[in-house]
Design goal:
The protein has about 350 residues and is α/β, with parallel strands linked by helices. It has two domains: about 250 residues, Aldolase class I (TIM Barrel, Alpha-Beta Barrel); about 80 residues. It is about 45% helix and about 15% strand. It has 14 helices and ten strands. An eight-stranded parallel β-sheet has the order 3-10-9-8-7-6-5-4. The protein has a two-stranded antiparallel sheet with strand order 1-2. Strand 5, helix 3 and strand 6 form a beta-alpha-beta unit. Helix 3 packs parallel to helix 5 and helix 11 packs antiparallel against helix 12. The chain is globular, with a radius of gyration of 19 Å.
Amino acid sequence: MTTITTTKEDLACYLNTPLPIGNKTIQNRMVLAPMAGLGHIALRELITEFGGFGLLFTGMCSARAVPHENPVLSNVFTWRQEELAFLVCQIFGSEPQSMALAARRIEAEGFFGVDLNFGCSVAAICKKGCGAALLKTPDLAAQIVNAVRQAVDCPVFVKFRTGWENNPQFAVDMAKRFEDAGADALTFHPRVAPDRRNRPPRWEIITRVNDAVSIPVFGNGNLFNNSDGIKMMDQTGCQGLSLGRMAVARPWIFAQWTKGFVPGNDIYHFTALRLTHLLCQHYDDHFAVKMFKKFAPYFCANFKFSQAILKKLIKGDTMAQICINIECLLKEAPETLATPNLTLFV
């Protein structure tokens, strides 16, 4: 395999190389992974302010609900008009027709593309036959991709895992089926569905998936620092990187890897406070507090005394109290870790 990167400068150069996806092109190959309860409009706006990414993804949206959703009222199917050009909406469902109808609504709203979730292994989703459960019914999964492909012209992404058993060939076969069904790009997380990050992701399966298809493959899983990005690109040959938990912990990470952004000592205080302001702009106080408390464990994983800081940071039921906590705890930058405390990366 040809070596793509050897230094963080090489990585930045490669990540800033344009990449065609379907009938569109992105200018940057580093993207935000779709995350339920985390990839909301406020976090996306914060990441956008730092910059350095190619695409952002929404959290999971129900395919059944999307055709009738009111973005003014919805806490999930909502966006800023100015982000649509680089925003992909992820949907979950178990029926080709409902997924196709949702995709039509997404395209009509002006999103960059639609992403099909075949990777979520949360019990509540899988019990409905959605998410990673669809990897148990490969024919149906391929039918869904084909139905969405027939319904829209915008790029169609598929996010999936290795499967339900430790069988790399199954992931390769599914990648081929998704491409044949009309997918324009794949985001692959090389863990089996029952594995809730108990074991390291098997990056070598990304290599096999990438070699099996001609469409772009975004690698996902345990990308914590520049050296991880360099290793994944070199070892797997994937066309881009998809970051999830680390983008929550460090919303400036895209700018850091692709633009050479150097965070100052005040980055944690600034970021936490800025997110509270954005949450308050987009949500009522109660829901804003709820979203901040989902964000806080990932963010506090950066700190040496992460558990103690987290406990104090989320104490309170109003955003006003949260802001007071931020001032008390983060005004003077806490001691940080090179790699986050993964016990908080739930």
